[in-house]
Design brief:
315 residues; alpha/beta; Arc Repressor Mutant, subunit A; D-Maltodextrin-Binding Protein, domain 2; six-stranded mixed β-sheet; five-stranded mixed β-sheet; 43% helix; globular
Length: 315
């Protein structure tokens, strides 16, 4: 079966969202020629992902809703998942086609997992635990992940306060270290780093490779020392396949790290920084429930911070 690429997946997503859709409409949406789109459509049709019918000489294209041969997995733009390519390859034995989507914000990724836009996600434990409850059990943790790789960066000349990402391991670190308020949320590691570099805040909590970039900019760094950061989350629609997915994940994460160049390309970060910063992480096949239980009070504070009333009630 011919391997699908990024344009194929983009095409498939448009078909799912706007179906039924014609070949001409697809070409306009993607900004490519009809002949190029036609070749892609035939590839998707041969993969069993879409159906093409003809009405009055016009191609009408719909997604095959019953087909589960494609799986979408989310990761964050981080040095944390060097095993993701191996994991994707192993998932192809279960789903045939695997699409990796890179996010900059953990909570946005968790929300997409809860509504089924993603089926799998490497996501902070705090986000997964929160979204499990919010979604009434639509999300489960079915695999291990990593620890380490995060820290507090300091610009002594910056303004009062700190920046972090909402409902994430970074916010958990900020809470556990009682960082100076106010708290300013950033939508990405780069945005948080920039706020500190520009002096908009005095401190920021970020992850690798942004932590290594901060070090190159001579910012003082204090380790968060979090034993657990991201874990493997799954949408409940995959429940019957949890065992197979967990086994594939364990095999991938326990193998030797390789193809860092391919991984750096996926997350669009410099290879030299990835090679350096990936060493900051430890990896484990299963979640450490005892560790999560030991920080449960901190997790609650991160999910429902003390200023939640002031932020939420505006009248």
């Amino acid at each position: 079966m011919e391997e699908l690429d990024e344009i194929d997946f983009e095409l498939y997503d448009i078909i799912k969202e706007y179906m039924p859709i014609t070949l001409s409409e697809l070409a306009r949406n993607l900004g490519h020629s009809k002949s190029m789109i036609y070749r892609r459509v035939k590839k998707l049709e041969n993969s069993g992902l879409i159906k093409v019918s003809y009405q009055g000489g016009v191609s009408i294209i719909t997604a095959n809703q019953k087909n589960d041969s494609i799986i979408t997995i989310g990761i964050l733009r981080a040095s944390e998942y060097p095993y993701i390519i191996k994991f994707a390859k192993k998932l192809e034995n279960i789903f045939n086609h695997v699409k990796i989507v890179v996010y900059d914000e953990a909570y946005k990724e968790a929300l997409d997992l809860s509504i089924g836009k993603l089926k799998l996600a490497m996501n902070p434990a705090v986000s997964l635990l929160a979204i499990h409850r919010i979604s009434r059990g639509q999300v489960h943790i079915i695999g291990g992940g990593s620890g380490g790789g995060s820290g507090i960066i300091n610009n002594l000349n910056g303004k009062n306060g700190h920046s972090t990402s909402i409902m994430s391991s970074m916010e958990l670190c900020a809470d556990m270290n009682k960082l100076e308020m106010p708290r300013v949320y950033g939508n990405s590691g780069q945005e948080i780093l920039n706020k500190v570099l520009k002096g908009e805040v005095r401190q920021g909590v970020i992850w690798e490779p942004f932590l290594s970039i901060a070090s190159k900019n001579n910012l003082k760094i204090t380790s968060c020392e979090l034993d657990t950061c991201c874990l493997l989350g799954a949408h409940s629609s995959l429940y019957d396949k949890y065992d197979k997915i967990s086994k594939a994940f364990s095999d991938a994460i326990s193998s030797d790290i390789s193809d860092l160049e391919g991984y750096a390309n996926i997350i669009n970060m410099p290879l030299d920084v990835i090679k350096l910063s990936v060493k900051s992480y430890s990896f484990f096949e299963e979640p450490d429930k005892n560790y999560l239980k030991s920080i449960i009070s901190n997790l609650r504070n991160t999910i429902l911070p003390s200023d939640i009333i002031e932020r939420s009630v505006i009248i």
